[in-house]
Amino acid sequence: MEGQRKGSFNVMEGSEANGKRWCGSVVRTCDLVLRLLAFLLTLVAAVVIGADKQTAVVPIKLVESMPPLYVPVAAKWHYLSAFVYFVGANAMACTYATLSLLLSLGKRRKWMETVITVLDTLMVALLFSSNGAAIAVGLLGLQGNSHVHWNKVCNMFGKFCDQVAASLFISLLGSITFLLLLLLPQLFRLKQTT
Amino acid sequence: MEGQRKGSFNVMEGSEANGKRWCGSVVRTCDLVLRLLAFLLTLVAAVVIGADKQTAVVPIKLVESMPPLYVPVAAKWHYLSAFVYFVGANAMACTYATLSLLLSLGKRRKWMETVITVLDTLMVALLFSSNGAAIAVGLLGLQGNSHVHWNKVCNMFGKFCDQVAASLFISLLGSITFLLLLLLPQLFRLKQTT
């Protein structure tokens, strides 16, 4: 009787240990895939906006009674500080994603995992704040604001704005990837407790 | 000899268990204090910008050759979508901080802790993105941007801008508090492994 009970305990413990090991390996694989994805997305986002430049011929009125002068005007990402912060944040996140991916490929010690989780959290804060800043300024460029007399500029620099929008979308995906890196172990823990 | 060894093991295990229990209670106390702080900071940030309003008499030129007309113009937070998002995000974070504080005061189950950590992470993303958006637009109001011909407005609405800056600073502290809520268990884990 005693032996039977011990035997059934061992089978249950064994299957529980197997389940935990399986969960651990799934989390580890997802972690590596997400880091690779985060690296690619933040890299592409920084490159797409970094290479963004457009020159358009814009009518400028010097005197009200005279016809406007047509002057070539260039639009560059570094004219707006929100975009500079956006590029810097994506470049930092991209560098960090590379380093953390390389570290994750090797044997991960407990303190190293903790340091990586802390840095992942800081990257989420950095990326989301830079996305918020760039999207806010991008929307002003697209729609303008009549209350503060800020005219929209995207009607003159359509290609430039399209490229900014693409970069913002890609970076948002990169930020969500970093968010998933934080949420993944929590979601698996939730699955285990239910 | 055997009894002595067992005794010393028991003493070590006991002190380790005591240390873990002490660490756990410190983390729990810090968690409650941080949640209370997050509630207060996000509440004050939302109220300070929500109550922000200023009317200034601004010169407006209708015809170049005529003297300007002096017109009273109002500045309100909901004129800019970035500030609307900022107030919404702070209000949501404030409500969540209250609910999570009440839940944390009771007995915390494992699944509940996981859900709270997931929601804390989402709050960090939400608050940092809203801070980024509001700071970017606030800086444009303060400095303007000559490249896109967006004039600064803070020279005319000084009190309004000061109140926005105060709210942004308080909300930034609130966001850092939510960030600390995520980092706190990690930092204690790091202390335990070193």
From TrEMBL, chains A, B:
A Pfam family name for this chain? Answer: CASP_dom
Ranges of residues in domain Casparian strip membrane protein: 26-176
- List residues traversing the bilayer: 32-51, 77-103, 115-144, 164-184
Taxonomically, the superkingdom here is Eukaryota
Q: Name a GO CC annotation attached to this entry.
A: plasma membrane
Could you confirm whether the keyword Membrane appears in this record? yes
The protein's location, in the record's own words, is:
Cell membrane
Membrane topology term: Multi-pass membrane protein
The alphabetized UniProt keywords are: Cell membrane, Membrane, Transmembrane, Transmembrane helix
Presence of the UniProt keyword Protein biosynthesis in the record? no
What family does the database annotate?
Belongs to the Casparian strip membrane proteins (CASP) family.
NCBIfam families annotated for this entry?
A_tha_TIGR01569 (TIGR01569)
Q: How does it assemble?
A: Homodimer and heterodimers.
Stated name of the protein: CASP-like protein
The taxonomic lineage of its organism, from the top, reads:
Eukaryota, Viridiplantae, Streptophyta, Embryophyta, Tracheophyta
